[in-house]
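Consider the following input, taken from an annotated entry for Carboxymethylenebutenolidase (Duganella levis).
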Amino acid sequence: MDDLTRDAESLLTKTNLSDGVDRRGFLKTALGTGFAAATLPVMAQNVVKTDTVGLTAGTIVLNIGGQDVPVYRAQPEGKTNLPVVLVISEIFGVHEHIADVARRFAKQGYLALAPDLFIRQGDPTKVASIADLQRDIISKTPDAQVFTDLDAVVAWAKVNGGNADKIAITGFCWGGRITWLYAAHNPSIKAGVAWYGRLMGDSNANFPRHPIDVAGTLTVPVLGLYGAKDTGISQESIVVMKAALAKGPNKSTFIIYPNSGHAFHADYRPSYVEADAKDGWGRTLAWFKQNGVI
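Applying the prediction step yields:
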């Protein structure tokens, strides 16, 4: 057992499984159902719905350092030794879209795990204002806390049907940034796919580093999927990130979609671009396969 796994497993004081609710029934009922309040109204005509036929899907709860952390889990029913993918949410938390992405991976043979990484700070699915969400929850969720939770999720996966040598990570927006950073934090990750995650920013105690700061030493190959029309992530920052990555030992790369802005994969939002979302999904599966995850 490597040191990272040992340290993470020491955080798992108890684990309880329940499909649909956590062990107390109140902490996080029906994780992964409904859409976040800040994203309403939903573009229902575009929403992709992935069923659970052939899957085991629902909420598990990991107790990490005394905190119950709900995780949406989806996997092929009755299978073990599965490739693992960590699915990291946007700022809106683990709502229906993120759960559906997990089920999509499960249909491809993965043990997909989407943890509620904001559980200590609040419930982002219930906050109607993005400004309030950023101020009251996102800004107060330290990267170090996120990494500790993800370490524990990885440790759980390794002893609950996941293949310890085949672990990947993908994330959207806030989760895209975390994808880059966690790939640097945990070099045992085989590959990552970052969907329009911020690359640069101001540093503080909660966010001491950003993807640009780890690019030169990153060893995990990360595929960045970004939109040329994204007003929040400049093309200049991507150019700088590419140059920093080129100085390091990894094989990370970017795909830039000229017709997309931010959140082009989010099929429940007006920003959705179906052709690019489908292309990105295909590239994600191919990237993981190319890098030995499956």
